[in-house]
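Human: We require from you a protein record containing the residue sequence and its fold in token form, and nothing else.

Assistant:
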Amino acid sequence: MEKIGRLFKKFRTARGLRLKDVAKSGISISQLSRFEKGETDLTITKFIAILDEINMPIDEFVYAAHDFRRDELNEILQQIKIFVSTKNIAGMKKLLISQTEKRDTRILFHSLNCILIKIRLQDLTGETYYTDSDVAYLTNYLFSVDYWGHYELLLFSNTLDVLQHETLMLLCREMYNRTNFYKDLPNNRRLIASMLLNAYITCVERKEYLDAMYLEKQLKNSYFNDTEMYERLIFKYAQNLLIYRKDGDQLAVIEMRKCIGVMRLLDCNVLAQHYEDFLTKLIIENEN
């Protein structure tokens, strides 16, 4: 706790607050001083209370405590995105080995991370990496967690395309019950929306139109605000994807190309190319 205490002191003093200013939260000045020196620990209740006194969200503090790095899964996802966009198979394989070789106490999560990497590596190379037992392990974990948080949302959102359709939809519906406590957190709300968008596009790809329309209704209830332009853009693309997939309406293709044009206008060229390639493939399939 020594590092935590020193870090807390750094943020307290940066805000011009004295020990006695923070001690109003039910902790004595001497106890707070010992905590900042690393001489004593605090209960989670008291720690949250003193964070409130310096007006600092706990996730912001945790980010700082991790030397201003994202959590491990977010770091892995960022590397996967880079490797996929650059078709860096060697980098993906090295990432898989690094997770496989980890020997700390978080064996469960390293195993899940490995499954995620295998799924995306197989998608990139066309070679076999993950097994049915890997997918079963993943789904068993997701069903076993009573309340989905940041980790579960990211994990599901980035692996849902390999799940059996019935399992996919069951988990989508369960997700609403298992994220109730977190829906008011902006980051998690956007993660939920991202998950629904991925599931929506997957349903359209699989021609599961009734389920796609169910997810579309849930997405419309998400009420994306004006700052959530990415979600609005992908949702608009996905809606027109559904129209084109169902009816072959060429106007829907025009609308999707407009969405891709906006991505390019914003210099999101890797993203734009991904959706352009996807659309090209779909058009060829429809013509055949």
